[in-house]
Specification:
Strand content: 15-25%
CATH topology: Rossmann fold
Number of strands: 8
Order of helices and strands: EEEHEHEHEHHHHEHEH
Helix content: 25-40%
Distance between the termini: 36 Å
CATH class: Alpha Beta
Shape: globular
Low-confidence stretches: none
CATH architecture: 3-Layer(aba) Sandwich
Mean pLDDT: 94
Largest sheet: 8 strands, mixed
Radius of gyration: 17 Å
């Protein structure tokens, strides 16, 4: 794993983390890991215990894993102190992925694995078709379309929200996770925070333009988003995706990739990527791979 910097266009540089298959092997695909609000790309590089890092696991399984700091975080925070709206983030990420694809092999294409607010960016990216290489699919955790809390309880710029709603029970995390997690915390850009309230209204139109497979995961102790049958129907109904899956992860809180359940979730997400690749490889001649 190493640090990387990507050109997001318009003078914006995105910092991030990169892990590639060992031995100089070409990647089967690139997993682009998009973090949530108030935290940086290291969210996906859990070092509390061996085996919990998505970057390590993905590279060992033959994938390149690219975890950029989203616009307004990391290296771009000085240039974008208020962050960017969703359309701006989508354009910046698209330019950054084009920069990456121009310098490194991407295999079958990009697979977006996103958490919480990063899921909004993943869905917007799929809806606009902005990646320069084929988009294989989306795997999103910690994001729904129906709030489980009142609007004034939501986290935002200068208002982190209830600690328990982010984490769930303490037993779900290695004890050292909270100490290591402190170095990942970052201010939520004000523009991004404001768009959180708009998401339930924004989601349907974006979902109607998503035409790649999508998997949503809700942690057992997810407390920001509803995941009951009615809420799941509302989540899936607008999607134009050829396949949409909703999974529930036991013994996990909202910050899945920082907890004991991180490896379980990452393996399930990468298994979904394998399914997406299999569908493409096994598609009958003349039939769209995602049909």
């Amino acid at each position: 794993m190493r640090d990387v910097t990507l050109d997001g266009g318009n003078g914006v540089r995105l910092s991030g983390l990169l892990a590639e298959p060992p031995g100089g092997r070409a990647p089967r695909a690139v997993v682009v890991a998009l973090h949530g609000s108030g935290i940086r790309a290291g969210y996906f590089d859990n070092r509390a215990r061996p085996g919990l890092s998505l970057l390590d696991l993905g590279a060992r399984l033959g994938y390149t894993v690219l975890a950029p700091d989203r616009p307004g975080y990391g290296a771009s925070a000085a240039v974008l102190p208020d962050g960017q709206d969703l359309a701006g983030q989508t354009a910046t990420l698209g330019a950054a992925l084009a920069d990456f694809a121009g310098r490194r092999p991407v295999g079958a294409g990009f697979f977006l694995l996103a958490h919480s607010a990063g899921g909004r960016l993943a869905l917007s990216t799929a809806a606009t078709g902005s990646p320069p290489a084929p988009l294989i699919g989306l795997d999103i955790s910690g994001l729904g379309s129906v709030f489980a809390v009142e609007e004034d309880e939501l986290p935002g710029a200068g208002a982190p929200g209830a600690w328990r709603r982010h984490w769930g029970a303490l037993r779900l995390y290695p004890p050292v996770a909270f100490r290591l997690g402190r170095r990942l915390v970052a201010p939520v850009p004000v523009v991004e925070a404001g768009e959180t309230l708009l998401w339930p209204g924004t989601y349907p139109a974006l979902a109607a333009r998503v035409r790649v497979p999508v998997r949503f995961t809700f942690a057992e102790q997810e407390e920001w988003w509803r995941s009951d049958e009615e809420a799941v129907r509302a989540l899936l109904a607008p999607l134009a995706a050829p396949r949409a899956v909703v999974d529930r992860l036991p013994d996990a809180g909202h910050n899945i990739s920082l907890g004991w359940a991180a490896r379980t979730y990452h393996l399930r997400a990468l298994a979904f990527l394998e399914e997406c690749l299999l569908t493409r490889e096994a598609a009958p001649p003349g039939r769209p791979a995602d049909a």
